[in-house]
Design goal:
By secondary structure, this protein is α+β, with helices and mostly antiparallel strands. It is built from six helices and eight strands, in the order αββββββαααααββ.
Length: 208
């Protein structure tokens, strides 16, 4: 995915990625330097006061008007988004606001890199132990504590849950349409969905 993203940036092609691991799913967008238009409502002006009774005056507002404002947003590549530096006071403050699913994604991508596949229900016991081992290696390398992911996290990472696929696919498809139409501001570069809690969060991680 990192290599494909790099090739897309070299060719000026927008890059989207997404996947589902059990109850968890994510979507990532690298739109490079993305231009879009945002609809803004003009501030209504008050018309001259009109008397309505001896002592009461009311201001009549003109109908609301809108205008299209052109804006630009910068996105970082996937490689930088996965290599965020978590040391330092500023990073520690950001860590408290970052979804744990970001670190779960790092563990699952490392599993895929090492094994050439995703965790499989057919080898649940072996893969669960390996996920816990990878958790320690990955989170230590990132400089964060292993308590960010509980010991039972592997039990929620197997197979693909249809409802989670529907949510992640819907959000990802929506962002693709927005990027193609160049209308409305894009979301942050990451979207994470936690099927256990039933909520989704957006994150902007990386250099831009």
């Amino acid at each position: 995915m990192v290599r494909i993203d790099q090739l897309c940036r070299q060719s000026g092609v927008k890059f989207f990625a997404g996947d589902v691991f059990g109850y968890h799913g994510y979507a990532f967008a690298d739109l490079g330097e993305h231009e879009f238009v945002e609809e803004k409502t003009k501030v209504a002006k008050g018309s001259p006061a009109v008397e309505d009774g001896p002592d009461t005056k009311k201001a009549k507002l003109e109908p609301a008007e809108t205008t299209m404002v052109k804006k630009r947003a910068g996105f970082c590549p996937l490689k930088e988004a996965l290599a965020v530096e978590w040391s330092g006071e500023k990073a520690r403050a950001a860590l408290r606001r970052t979804a744990p699913d970001y670190f779960l994604l790092q563990v699952l991508l490392k599993f895929r890199t090492d094994k050439g596949r995703d965790p499989s229900p057919q080898s649940y016991g072996e893969d669960s132990k390996l996920l816990l081992q990878i958790r320690g290696d990955v989170l230590d390398a990132l400089g964060v504590g292993t308590d960010l992911l509980p010991d039972d996290f592997p039990s929620y990472c197997f197979s693909e849950m249809a409802p989670v696929c529907a949510v992640v696919g819907g959000v990802l498809g929506q962002e693709v349409v927005k990027a193609l139409s160049q209308r409305d501001p894009p979301h942050n570069n990451f979207f994470f969905f936690d099927g256990i809690k039933g909520n989704g969060v957006v994150e902007r991680l990386g250099a831009k």
